[in-house]
Amino acid sequence: MAPPTDPTDPAYAAGLDAADPLGPHRDLFVGAETPLVYFDGNSLGRPLRVTGERLRTFVEEEWGGRLIRGWDEAWMDLPLVVGDGIGAACLGAAAGQVAVGDSTTVLLYKALRAAVALRPGRTEVVLNRDDFPTDRYVAASVARELGLTLRWIEVDPAAGVSVDDAAGVVGERTAVVLLSHVAYRSAWLADAPAITAVAHDAGAVVLWDLSHSVGSVPLALDDWGVDLAVGCTYKYLDGGPGAPAFVYAAARHHEGLDQPVTGWMGHADPFAMGPDWVPAPGIRRMVSGTPPIVGMLALQDMLRLLAAVGMPAVRQKSVALTSYAVDLADAWLAPLGVALASPRDPERRGGHVTLSHPRMREVVAALWQADVLPDYRDPGGLRLGLSPLSTSFTEVRTGLAAVRDLLA
Ligand SMILES: *Cc1c(COP(=O)(O)O)cnc(C)c1O
């Protein structure tokens, strides 16, 4: 029998699942056996089943058994050990350039202050009017503190910042270009190497927010010459609610890296308890206070899985999932007045797809009642976050059929 060619046919989705080399990984996640449709893996990834056992063992053996000795034996180094794990599995970053801790918001503040300090005398920060709120708010505070000017790039909310957009505003006054690599609303995948080169040609540094790309889109921060980057670990890295963020700083900047939250844990010798702050060598100076050890446990399980699978395979599955969602939206939802608010070209699209309709807010509320969990983002955007290792093609079809039925 010939394989089905109509994407709306349930057998078509089943065929994609059967042919998917990463398909069996879905069973490694908690809840895979339930009929719930999860389209929000880019806001809070599902936990791996092994994480339950890791948490229990941690309480009984490491925390309960080692007690205060745990700091000397392992925990003190964990922000950099886990940072190296993120760097190797996801960022294309050599060891010693990534630290884990704080929230993305706090690390963004520290990294932006450090980035501005790398370019004394320059007065402008370039950013995107449609970027995630925390990025815009933090940049506004840094500008206020330091007397800088924010230079906004205006973009189409269904697309994002192009190389030409960036080249049009970056200039000799630019200290820092702060942008998201994958746009939280549209999933626009910025051309990070080219935009980084535009910034460098003008003598500026770049700070990339990788919250929606890490664990979904392959990154090569060292090769691209990126200066600084930050990102979340509770989205595609499945670190759990409130899991700490990470910061990357290229080794060439470490010597002069001046961040403002100079806590004892970023000191060269924390237990000397000396009168003045002396920065630790390397990326450790980006650490401020006591590292959130419990918050890094789940993340380590996901990093192990991502390292084994490899980001190119993850990206291939991600493109297949988002392309299938676009095909179903074209067939079922476009006739009902739904517009694609994400790039159609998979080369310019990250791991999610946004579909817009004036009544999408009501649709999303009804979907949640039916155990289909996407996200809603104004204006009228249904956001499908398709976490590559924990989402099946049949799940995509089931969820979009529910959207079709509600709109009809
Ligand atoms: C999710 C996200 C954040 C989150 O910041 P928190 O401090 O973890 O709440 C920041 N920036 C972007 C672009 C995001 O998508």
TrEMBL record:
Alphabetically, the GO molecular function entries are: kynureninase activity; pyridoxal phosphate binding
Keyword Hydrolase: yes or no? yes
- Biological process (GO), any one: anthranilate metabolic process
What cellular component terms from Gene Ontology apply here?
cytoplasm
Question: Which keywords belong to this entry?
Answer: Hydrolase, Pyridine nucleotide biosynthesis, Pyridoxal phosphate
Would I find Hydrolase among this entry's keywords? yes
Give the metabolic or biological pathway: Cofactor biosynthesis; NAD(+) biosynthesis; quinolinate from L-kynurenine: step 2/3; Amino-acid degradation; L-kynurenine degradation; L-alanine and anthranilate from L-kynurenine: step 1/1
Supply the Pfam families for this chain.
Answer: KYNU_C
Names of the cofactor(s): pyridoxal 5'-phosphate
Q: Which SUPFAM superfamilies match?
A: PLP-dependent transferases
Q: Might you give the EC number(s) for this enzyme?
A: 3.7.1.3
The record's listing under InterPro entries reads: Kynureninase, PyrdxlP-dep_Trfase, PyrdxlP-dep_Trfase_major, PyrdxlP-dep_Trfase_small
What domain of life does the native source organism fall in?
Answer: Bacteria
Q: Which EC class is the enzyme in?
A: hydrolase
Catalysed reaction, written as an equation: L-kynurenine + H2O = anthranilate + L-alanine + H(+); 3-hydroxy-L-kynurenine + H2O = 3-hydroxyanthranilate + L-alanine + H(+)
* Family statement drawn from the similarity comment of this UniProt entry: Belongs to the kynureninase family.
Purpose of the protein = Catalyzes the cleavage of L-kynurenine (L-Kyn) and L-3-hydroxykynurenine (L-3OHKyn) into anthranilic acid (AA) and 3-hydroxyanthranilic acid (3-OHAA), respectively.
Quaternary organization: Homodimer.
Q: What is this protein called?
A: Kynureninase
Native organism: Nocardioides perillae
